[in-house]
Amino acid sequence: MITVDLEETSVRDLNQRLHDLPGDTNERTWTVVNPGGRHALLAGLTLPLAVTVRGHVGYYCAGMNEAADVVIDGHAGVGVAENIMSGSVRVRGNASQAAAASGHGGLVVIEGDASARCGISMKGVDIVVGGSVGHMSAFMAQAGRLVVCGDAGGDLGDSLYEAVIYVQGTVASLGADCEEQPMADADRAAVAELLARAGIAGDPARFRRYGSARQLYHFHVDHADAY
Amino acid sequence: MDGNAPIRRSASFPPETIHEIQRAAAEGIYEIRGFGAKRRLPTFDDLVLLGASISRYPLEGYREKCATDVVIGARFAKKPLHLKIPITIAGMSFGALSATAKTALGRAATMMGTTTTTGDGGMTDEEREASSLLVYQVLPSRYGLNPRDLRRADAIEVVVGQGAKPGGGGMLLGQKITPRIAAMRALPAGIDQRSACRHPDWTGPDDLAIKIQELREITDWQKPIYVKVAAARPRYDVQLSVKSGADAIVLDGMQGGTGATQDVFIENVGIPTLPALREAVEALQELDMHRKVPLIISGGIRSGADVAKALAMGADAVSIGTAALIALDCNRPIHVADYAALGTAPGACHHCQTGRCPVGIATQDPALESRLDVDAAARRVRNYLSTMVLEAQTLARACGKSHLHNLEPEDLAALTVEAAAMAGVPLAGTGWIPGRY
């Protein structure tokens, strides 16, 4: 295992070192200490590395991640795992706004709470939040699944496309074109599978499903009040 | 009663206004269309260049060198772009445009040693292969955005706004959403696709600086990063872009085109390119960053004269969108019956949003797209760009300039009081700049 101390090494040097690793590297396990809330940490990883950060990170940690499995043993700033393509990012603490924004694939786990706009514009990523999510979560979410073990803030799933949201707790309000839909066996199986992958305990039977009513897919004057 | 009495039309309610009111009454929704502002606006036509005579020394046309190159991105990027000409092709999406049109634009830009730009929806392999220098847009929708394409781009453009619709997002109507485009955007085929007006993960200049830092980290500080803003409050936006760490700024005036936007937006939001450029240059000068952070101006650029005047006002380069499409064949009087079927005519068509482009540019219909011969189309755009460069060089030499960038405001005069005020150059025949002297 390789340990990098960000009190001694810059984010730039660390990221460059990780980017320069050859595909067949044996240096697959990394620990980063003293992150100090620095931004853009571990952005743009492309290899199946296991990277653990001991402490809190700033904006865009593990942005556009591909293949790597990143664990943040602390809290995460805005846009953690934004536009993630594959691999996984786990936040042991809480995450700020726009967690996993526009993520295309992979798995993002937030063991604590996530702030506003969690999963905004998500495009295929799976997100599991152990706690609650803030307002406008899954805004314009296109594809993928968002599992919320706690409560959801206002305007959940506003202008939702084909992403699916599962919430165990209460929902303050639903956004435009987001509706509660029946939980089928396939939904319970999906929640069980996602909770298992996230390592978070929960009873799939207690979750409710929210999806797009698909009433705003075509811009029409009769729906003007919904916008 | 005089049977020959002239018909008296209302200035407040001309026929087109009456038509629009009645259309709105019938349909209950605003008009969405393509192209750019059609209202009369102050333009570079309202300026003239002051050729040399006794007090200024001209260069010999066709003989003495007038260089045209420009470097973009030397502020922070390890690999700045070296363009042979100060004219670039603006961002236009695959989706709004056909793949053939995008390829033709890329080939033309390559032939001229300049950049072309992706658009909402991401980068296609055809466009990448056709373009030796390709600018990759990062837009609020993030449609198709991925790190692989970030790395294979030559520069990155963070799009904050578009001149046709400052503060507005976009809409690609369902008739243009083919399965390929839908897959690139991770959305169902055939639905109206909304492009957000705000980025999902940053708000304001402090966040933008960190977003730019992230993009630099992902691409190892290799790529120039542009910030594109619409012309609404250019003085603030330009300075905040500089503060945020942009390598270059693209400023799009209200004459800038669009594939599909509300007509009321196109015609009523933002400010024209002429005053926007002056404000932007002054903003850079206030920061002592003029000529250090290149300024690329777009929105209604049509000719080498426009290029020369824009550079004289302080731009480092210009970008063209609508004009490039016109060079491709947009609004050419062919397939006239198809224009008529859209309720328009060659020379007036703005029906990009329908997907029924008669000349195969703004369409995803294979039969229509096949009307655009990619080789011939690329050649036309290349010829057009070449003509613009020759025109600009001719004018610059006449002003005694050995490089287009040596043109300066002192080489300009305005033909109208309004243009003098907006461009910050004297009214012709006077030393008067309204609001200054």
Question: How does this model look, in words?
Answer:
The complex is a heterodimer of chains A (227) and B (437). Chain A is an alpha/beta fold and 227 residues long. In chain A, 10% of the residues lie in helices and 23% in strands. Chain A contains two helices and eleven strands; from the N terminus they run βαβββββββββαβ. Chain A has an eleven-stranded mixed beta sheet, with helices on one face. In chain A, strand 1, helix 1 and strand 2 form a beta-alpha-beta unit. Chain A is elongated and about 60 Å long. With 437 residues, chain B is of the alpha/beta class. Chain B has two domains: 51-329 and 372-405, Aldolase class I (TIM Barrel), CATH 3.20.20; 407-437, no CATH class. In chain B, strands 5-15-14-12-11-8-7-6 form an eight-stranded parallel beta sheet. In chain B, strand 14 (295-298), helix 10 and strand 15 form a beta-alpha-beta unit. In chain B, helix 9 runs parallel beside helix 15 (417-423), helix 10 crosses helix 14 and helix 11 crosses helix 14 (374-398). The radius of gyration of chain B is 22 Å and the shape is globular. In chain B, 56% of the residues are buried. Chains A and B meet through helix 1 of A and helix 6 of B.
> Any low-confidence stretches of chain A, pLDDT <50, length ≥5?
none
How large, in whole angstroms, is the Cα Rg of chain B? 22 Å
Helical fraction of chain A equals: 10-25%
Give the helix proportion of chain B (percent range). 25-40%
Question: How does the helix and strand content of chain A classify structurally?
Answer: alpha/beta
The low-pLDDT segments of chain B are none
What's the CATH topology name of the largest domain in chain B?
Answer: TIM Barrel
Let me know the largest β-sheet of chain B: 8 strands, parallel
Largest sheet of chain A, if any?
A: 11 strands, mixed
What count of structural domains of chain B? 2
Task: Note the run of SSEs of chain A as H and E.
Answer: EHEEEEEEEEEHE
Assigned CATH architecture of the largest domain in chain B: Alpha-Beta Barrel
